[in-house]
Amino acid sequence: MPWKIKEADWKLLSQLRINALERLCLRILSEIEHINTNHAISAHQRYAEIYQVIQCRDKEIAQTFDDHRRSTALNELAAIQSQGLLPPEEFQSLSQETRDAISWVGRV
User: Fold this and answer.
1) What is d(CA 53, CA 49) in angstroms, rounded to the nearest whole number?
2) Which residues contact 25 (CB under 8 A, 6 or more apart)?
3) Fewer CB near the last or first residue (10 Å), C or N of the chain?
C-alpha cells in the first residue's frame, strides 16, 4: 500500500529531522567522549575506537538523513523513530495517519 505524507506533516518533518539529527550527534559525541576518557587503554587504542565509531555512525546518519525527499519521508520518519530520536511529544505532533504509516513502515 503506497503511503503519502500529508502536507502539514511534510512541513513538520523539516524541524523534526533537525532535532533528531542533533540528538543523534549528541549521542555519538557522548559515545566518543566515553571512549576518550577511558585512560585504561592507550591513546592509540582510543583513537582507533573513536575512528570506528565515527565510520559506523556516519553510515547511520547517511542512511537516516541523506535521502530527504517527500517520497521517502515516511521511511525517514520510521528510521528516526526506530533509533529513539523522536520523543513521544514530537511523534504525537504528527497526524494519526502519518503515525500509523510510520508504525507500519517500521515493521516491514
Assistant:
1) 6
2) 61
3) N
The dihedral through the CA atoms of 35, 39, 40, 46 has a sign that is: positive
* Cα torsion 59, 8, 103, 108: sign: negative
pLDDT 10s digits, 73-104: 999 999 999 999 999 999 999 999 999 988 87
- Provide the residue type at 67 as one letter: D
Give me the mean pLDDT over the 17-30 stretch: 97
81/33 Cα distance (integer angstroms): 25
pTM of the predicted model as reported, rounded to 2 decimal places: 0.87
Length of the chain: 108
Amino acid at position 10, single letter: W
Q: Do residues 73 and 94 make contact, with C-beta atoms less than 8 angstroms apart?
A: no
User: CA 5, CA 14: separation in Å to the nearest integer?
Assistant: 13
CA 76 vs CA 26, 48, 58, 64, 80: distances in Å: 19, 30, 16, 6, 6
